[in-house]
Design brief:
single chain; alpha/beta; 14 helices
Length: about 325
């Protein structure tokens, strides 16, 4: 079984990838999508989204990182994928799942699930252009408005050369509303000859067990559930081995929150940094009462120096 950390635009950047992969249980992670239009992107853009490329395409914990591209022009995607490979990307991942309206309006992400033939052309062109030793993978949803083309899309991706397919078990119109339709992942897995990863609505070990039972697949990609509970991958990996481990408590999480804040402070201007801290706390408060208390304390704070003091004081309380 492999467990992957999902790419989540505006949330799972290199800082959060670094912090979450330190906890353990994650086999590989993916960058936020890099939007491809009609131009060849310079190296600085790839390094901006994926600074790990300068360090063997791995996080500091040693977790491999893949580069994700989003677009609809087969040739331009292929040429940019080749650039990413020259910069050190070990795997190219293609995004056909993003539900954001702005992305879909510009003919990217989930809207392409209306066009299985285009999916095939994109995969075929990227696979033809990227060095043979570098896998090309894809992430999809079950469709745009409906699931009528789900199997056609999956076959198009596999026939085009996708080495793996991650299936977020909802349509674009479903957004992130529960439930995730895990039984559809089983249908996709039966329709294609490549490994399929289940994605969507796994927040606990119990969710994973139900997802595995309904989808019939072992491989898993975790997104929001892992951001909200950073040891979820480790918990699931242990359960898969028939083991039980103690969940990470708030005291163990505090050093990671402090490290996250230190990296955010170094990366972002003062006007943006507080929002990133509050963003992660918003997710953590779903799993930790202490995060809820901390979020309430900093919710209106915009001064980074005062936030420095608040975050530093966390270790004194635990």
């Amino acid at each position: 079984m492999q467990i992957a950390l999902a790419p989540m635009e505006g949330l799972v950047d290199d800082v959060l990838r670094d912090v979450l992969t330190r906890v353990g249980g994650i086999d590989w992670c993916v960058t936020e999508f890099i939007r491809i239009s009609h131009n060849l992107l310079p190296a600085r853009v790839f390094h901006g989204f994926a600074p790990e490329l300068r360090h063997g395409a791995r996080t500091r914990a040693g977790t491999p990182m893949r580069v994700q591209l989003l677009g609809s022009d087969p040739a331009c995607l292929a040429d940019n994928a080749a650039i990413a490979c020259r910069l050190g990307a070990p795997v190219i991942d293609l995004n056909f799942g993003c539900p954001a309206k702005t992305v879909n309006r510009s003919r990217g992400g989930a809207v392409l699930l209306k066009e299985p033939e285009l999916l095939h052309r994109i995969l075929r062109e990227v696979r033809r252009t990227v060095p043979g030793a570098i896998p090309v993978t894809a992430k999809m949803r079950l469709g745009y408005e409906h699931t009528d083309l789900a199997l056609d899309c999956a076959r198009a991706l596999a026939d085009g050369g996708a080495a793996q397919i991650v299936v977020h078990a909802r349509t674009k119109v479903d957004g992130y509303r529960p439930p995730a339709h895990w039984a559809w992942i089983a249908r996709v897995a039966q329709a294609v000859p490549v490994p399929v990863f289940a994605n969507g609505e796994v927040w606990s070990v119990e969710d994973w067990r139900r997802c595995r039972a309904e989808s019939g697949v072992e491989d898993l990609m975790l997104g929001r559930g892992l951001v909200a509970r950073p040891d979820l991958a480790r918990q699931i990996a242990a359960a898969r081995r028939g083991e039980t481990i103690e969940p990470m408590d708030w005291a163990a999480l505090v050093p990671l929150v402090q490290e996250f804040w230190a990296q955010v402070r170094a990366k972002l201007p003062d006007r943006q940094a507080p929002g990133r801290l509050k963003q992660w706390l918003c997710w953590l408060r779903q799993s930790y009462a202490e995060a809820d208390v901390l979020f309430a304390a900093v919710r209106t704070e915009t001064d980074c120096v005062r936030l420095d003091a608040v975050v530093a004081a966390l270790s004194q309380r635990h």
